[in-house]
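Hi, here's the filled form for the chain we discussed.

Project: internal
Contact: R.S.
Residues: 188
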Amino acid sequence: MSTESVTDGSPAPVSLRPLPAPLRLYVRAVDAISGGIGLVSMYLVFLMIGVLLLDAVTRNLIKLPQHWPVEFAQFTLAAYYFGGGAYSLREGAHVRMDLLYARMGVRGRALMDIATSVCMLFYLGVMLWGAVASLEYSIEIDQRLFSLWNPSVIPIKVFMAAALVLMILQGVSLVFKDYAAWRGADTR
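And the returned structure, exactly as it came back:
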């Protein structure tokens, strides 16, 4: 096994065997899906701004208030942050406590990432369990918001559950990447 120097100066073992082909395929597929949904979700903020601007104009300038824009903006905001969750995981844009992490070598960081990913996957699993239970309840009673617009909450709850599934899939992808990094293998 050969070694190569990494940015912090510590040698990292280089494995001759990368991740097995099915795992590489899984990582690439999940990364691509997370990237696509993340890019679409990024632009939802412009939709939300447009709807809120429409509300401000119709309410203040035209004196014709609408009943749906604020609730629609809330749904859009929920889709924005749930849709961006897996993308944030893929890009490593989540918050990390660097007190110890920055002092670790490549293998230590990978091991720490695996441990925290397992905790995150447990948390996301509990959230998914709650989201599915809430979705089932909403479908049973045809749940709607109590307002003049009276929109169904089922579509946003379906999207939340689907986004949580994607975050779990992305979390598993991270574990595979971190395992490969721990072994010194290429994750591409």
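Let me know if anything looks off before we file it.
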